[in-house]
């Protein structure tokens, strides 16, 4: 039996024993009081009788005047007075004894109650310290399933009062497209004050924002109503806040009696590169788990975590996870959750066939919300980013990089944050040391650095202590770094998709940004895809880039390479059977 179970049992037994003892002592107290009162009453009557006789004798003495009493009469009078005094004394003693007995009985009852209260308090303290501790240490830790998702969504009266023409204009201007198989129509939340929160204090984090982004405004009504949602929007469009607010708000809506002792919303982040033991301890009692597919699958396989109670499942950057070969891990994670009562969300920048297949397998009639005119979900760059491509000789990269750093980190722009991308870890280390030798404060993030060193470099860059950061593609996606003014692609990535996500580190949250890319003849096979991205974002295409041609290289199959023919649903022809005599 666990410590908490023993404490709870002791508290329960102590409370029951104290209640029984208190009742028994109370009955004894009543009986003692009644007996004492009866005995005192009898002695009081005897005393009154003796006193009455003495008074009679006294009156006889007074009436007799100077008449002297006989010897026997004087003795009788003396005995009567003694009896009177003794009766009064016995009555007082009996009363005091009765009061003392009552006080002793009450004292014992109070002591029993206090003992039971201490046991109950101790058990409650254990419960609060270990809110969801299992009965055995070998049991997997279960993610708390006390979130009450899928609350009935009620439209804010202020939003309901907005004219339909204004709502339609907002949808057209923000290029919001909704494909809902259930044919539900929700008005987008055009202002933060329309959020269906129960506590006004929950609006405080949005005080510095003007209006929700299009993906937030369109997705929130569906998410607050408990629907499965697929959100397709460009990088830096606020997708994280779109799925994060309904999740946290649903936990805050819980009644205290339903929280099972939890007094705060607990979130835990698990990922590779750090000790499993520390992360395993943090899983206990958590409400929200943010995890990478690899480390989460490790915990699932060893039985350290139980996802059967998950009610809010989010796949962020779903296309990226599948593109990097995590499809099997993602499917295992989803399969370990229960589909009953689960709300599944998928947010992505593109909408490839692999993501569509995953959504059709695990999601329940999801509403697909697309922002922009890219309804097909093809790769698009952020329209607010100015893209500049410089075709050059590889040997000129270093000198040109220093020129750009001096240009964009001088005068009033001295503290502007610049993110420099390299392709390989060794290259990132070399460039970081080169920039430092030129007198620029710089940090680095790549796979050869420890997790602690990467975290320290990223924090220093976010806080502005180090305005320059050299990184590999490990920082190309999912990182929300505020106020990045310029992104420099020192070496072009291996895919055009990675290029789009690299430059997406700037121009976030409605801000403008600039991306400068060095392109050499080594990457000429990617020129066609890059040209399409530039044209799709209405950016200038340099003549030197067009010389490489506009042919788009077919994306390589993960198993069969670049020459694999995807026939879709068309069955492949059977090979001709050849027999030899």
Look up the CATH topology of the largest domain. Rossmann fold
Biggest beta sheet attributes: 6 strands, parallel
Question: Distance between the terminal alpha carbons, to the nearest Å?
Answer: 76 Å
Number of domains: 3
Radius of gyration: 41 Å
Domain Helicase C-terminal: 400-549
Protein name: RNA helicase
Function: ATP-dependent RNA helicase required for 60S ribosomal subunit synthesis. Involved in efficient pre-rRNA processing, predominantly at site A3, which is necessary for the normal formation of 25S and 5.8S rRNAs.
Subcellular location: Nucleus, Nucleolus
Can you walk through the features of this model?
- The radius of gyration is 41 Å and the shape is elongated.
- Helix 5 runs parallel beside helix 6 (239-252) and helix 8 crosses helix 10.
- It has 3 domains: 3-129; 157-371, P-loop containing nucleotide triphosphate hydrolases (Rossmann fold), CATH 3.40.50; 385-546, Rossmann fold.
- It has 581 residues and is an alpha/beta fold.
- The protein has a 6-stranded parallel β-sheet, with helices on both faces. The chain has a 5-stranded mixed β-sheet with strand order 2-9-3-8-7. Strands 1-6 form a two-stranded parallel sheet.
- Helix 15 links the parallel strand 14 and strand 15.
- It has helices at 3-64, 71-129, 157-160, 164-173, 214-224, 239-252, 276-283, 293-302, 318-323, 327-335, 353-362, 397-408, 425-437, 451-462, 496-503, 527-536, 543-546, and strands at 141-142, 176-179, 229-232, 267-270, 288-291, 305-306, 312-316, 343-348, 367-371, 385-391, 417-421, 442-445, 468-471, 484-489, 513-519.
- The longest helix is centred in the N-terminal third of the chain and has 62 residues, at 3-64.
- Residues 82-97, 103-113 have a biased composition (Basic and acidic residues).
- Pfam families: DEAD, Helicase_C.
């Amino acid at each position: 039996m666990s410590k908490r179970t023993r404490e709870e049992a002791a508290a329960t037994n102590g409370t029951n024993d104290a209640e029984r003892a208190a009742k028994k002592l109370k009955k004894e107290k009543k009986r003692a009081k009644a007996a004492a009162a009866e005995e005192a009453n009898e002695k009081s009557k005897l005393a009154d009788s003796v006193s009455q006789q003495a008074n009679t004798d006294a009156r006889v003495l007074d009436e007799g005047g100077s008449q002297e009493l006989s010897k026997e009469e004087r003795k009788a009078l003396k005995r009567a007075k003694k009896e009177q005094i003794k009766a009064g004394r016995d009555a007082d003693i009996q009363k005091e004894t009765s009061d003392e007995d009552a006080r002793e009985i009450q004292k014992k009852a109070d002591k029993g109650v206090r003992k039971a209260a201490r046991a109950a308090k101790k058990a409650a303290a254990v419960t609060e310290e270990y809110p969801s501790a299992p009965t055995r240490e070998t049991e997997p830790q279960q993610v708390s399933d006390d979130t009450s998702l899928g609350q009935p969504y009620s439209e804010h009266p202020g939003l309901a009062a907005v004219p339909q023409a204004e709502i339609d204009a907002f949808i057209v201007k923000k290029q919001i497209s909704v494909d809902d198989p259930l044919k539900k129509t929700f008005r987008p939340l055009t202002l933060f004050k329309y959020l269906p929160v129960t506590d006004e204090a929950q609006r405080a984090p949005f005080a510095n924002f003007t209006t929700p982004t299009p993906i937030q405004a369109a997705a929130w009504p569906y998410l607050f109503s408990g629907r499965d949602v697929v959100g397709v929007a460009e990088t830096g469009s606020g997708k994280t806040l779109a799925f994060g607010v309904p999740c946290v708000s649903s936990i805050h809506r819980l009644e205290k009696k339903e929280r099972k002792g939890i007094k705060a919303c607990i979130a835990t982040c698990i990922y590779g590169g750090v000790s499993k033991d520390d992360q395993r301890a943090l899983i206990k009692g958590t409400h929200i788990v943010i995890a990478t597919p690899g480390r989460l699958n490790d915990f699932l396989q060893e039985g350290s975590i139980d996802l059967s109670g998950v009610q809010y499942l989010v796949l962020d950057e779903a296309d990226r996870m599948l593109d990097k070969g995590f499809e099997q891990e993602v499917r295992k994670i989803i399969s370990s959750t229960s589909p009953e009562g689960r709300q599944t969300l998928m947010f992505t920048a593109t909408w490839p066939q692999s993501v569509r297949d995953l959504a059709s397998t695990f999601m329940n009639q999801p509403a697909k919300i697309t922002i922009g005119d890219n309804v097909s979900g093809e790769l698009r760059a952020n329209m607010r980013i100015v893209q500049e491509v410089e075709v050059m000789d590889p040997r000129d990269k270093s000198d040109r990089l220093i020129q750009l750093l001096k240009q964009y980190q001088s005068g009033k722009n001295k503290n502007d944050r610049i993110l420099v991308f390299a392709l390989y870890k060794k290259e990132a280390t070399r460039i970081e040391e080169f920039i430092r030798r030129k007198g620029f404060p710089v940090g680095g993030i790549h796979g050869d650095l420890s997790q602690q060193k990467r975290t320290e470099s990223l924090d220093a860059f976010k806080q502005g202590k180090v305005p320059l950061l050299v990184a590999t593609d490990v920082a190309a996606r999912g990182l929300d770094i505020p106020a990045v003014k310029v992104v420099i692609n020192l070496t072009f990535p291996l895919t055009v998709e990675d290029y789009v996500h690299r430059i997406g580190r700037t121009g976030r949250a409605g801000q403008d940004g600039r991306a400068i890319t060095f392109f050499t003849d080594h990457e000429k096979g990617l020129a066609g895809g890059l040209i399409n991205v530039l044209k799709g974002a209405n950016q200038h295409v340099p003549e030197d880039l067009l010389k490489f041609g506009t042919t788009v290289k077919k994306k390589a199959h993960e198993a069969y390479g670049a020459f694999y023919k995807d026939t879709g649903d068309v069955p492949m022809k059977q090979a001709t059977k050849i027999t030899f005599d």
